[in-house]
Design goal:
Layout: H1 7-46, H2 49-78, H3 85-119, H4 121-124, H5 126-155, E1 160-162, E2 168-170, H6 173-177, H7 182-211, H8 215-250, H9 252-259, E3 271-278, E4 283-290, H10 293-299, H11 320-350, H12 357-365, H13 369-384, E5 388-390, E6 394-395, H14 405-435, H15 453-458
Antiparallel strand pairs: 1-2, 3-4, 5-6
Helix pairs in contact: 1-2, 1-5, 1-7, 1-13, 1-14, 2-8, 2-14, 3-5, 5-7, 7-8, 7-12, 7-13, 8-9, 8-11, 9-11, 11-13
Length: 467
Amino acid sequence: MFESFDATILARIQFAFTVSFHIIFPAFSIGLASYLAVLEALWLWKKDEVYLELFNFWKTIFAVAFGMGVVSGIVMSYQFGTNWSVFSDKAGPIIGPLMGYEVLTAFFLEAGFLGVMLFGLNRVGPRLHFLATVMVAIGTLISATWILSANSWMQTPRGFEINEVGQFVPVDWWAIVFNPSFPYRLVHMVLAAYLTTAFVVGACGAWHLIRRTAPRRARKMFSMAMWMAAIVAPIQIFAGDMHGLNTLEHQPAKVMAMEGHYQSHPDGAPLILFGIPNSAEKRVDYAIEVPKLSSLILKHDLNAPLTGLDTIAEELHPPVGIVFWSFRIMVGLGFAMLGIGLWSLWCRYRGTLDSNTWLHRAAVLMGPAGFVAVLAGWVTTEVGRQPYTVYGHLLTKDSVAPIAAPAVGASLLAFIIVYFFVFGAGTFYILRLMARLPRDPTPDLDEGPIRAAGAALANPHGGHHGH
């Protein structure tokens, strides 16, 4: 059934599918590990049991998400040896060690301390247990560092030579690791992970505030999440702008696709807010644009000239439609997160953070926003790099293994079925865990008694409050 398909396209779809499933779990676990460290630090400092209760609640969710991230990552890495063996052969001398360093430093650190963090509080004591939690959080950040270094090298390759058999061989590891786009990509991704976690925690807290199941714990987690949103969202927008300027310098075609600039603009380029990219006619149909604003954002000058895709050979154009829309989804969700953060500050100032039902409903709706923004951002990054795997040096069509389309299609179909079943079940289980926030030990006065013996005798129907 797949004989009429292109093997390279199927291989790309398969990698995109598996990496999309994989990345949502590290994006969540990176932020959640740091959140757990903060919760335990606050418990040790303030001696308030609510922080320990929240720590125990979220550590179970972290364990499930961490496990699914590990499994999905291992499966994804096998594709380097199957569908992308030519890429592995050519770029392996550089990508291989970077991936190996991630395992030797980050994964071993996480695995070594994870068991202590999950099960060791009553065995090793609070201080050593806190150290284990911090080590797990640091391990997730180190893992992100190595993986993003490898990806950034593919975007802005430096510090290598190409040998006589066409392999990329390292000549300067400092230049390879700290390539031009790496610092911007690392900051952007880590902040995205923190925002993703903040909005999941905020949605969970808002959900329980609406349902009044555990007001004290829900108020605490919702307040912490909204602080993170209010502080990190504007920083993330600034970091994203800096990353965009770096991309303009090193990958101009990607920015042209993001902006929808098919044609050059010698006297200042407009910012196209919305429209339908028409690659056949080399224009954006039904464009809603702000004159010269793109030049102001990218060059800090209203009249600065910006080149378009008309200056690049057509076979080197990235898929404009995908990049154009994924970029707008990411930016739109970023400003929506900023709006929620500012709204929460206003409610905090008014003293209505815990009682504003409309804010709570908005926070619940924004719960998945971080995951969608992360996926949209990675689509922008990876599709915008096309038609290259190693930007400017190795084309995607020259990276794929000599495979038949039916074989790739069959494995892709198997991946889709298994992934949706396994990870769908895992995600459903996480949502069930989030919905089961234990009641506060001391209920609010307006909630009535919980299983009080005298009340149960006086009112045989009063026991329903305890469920």
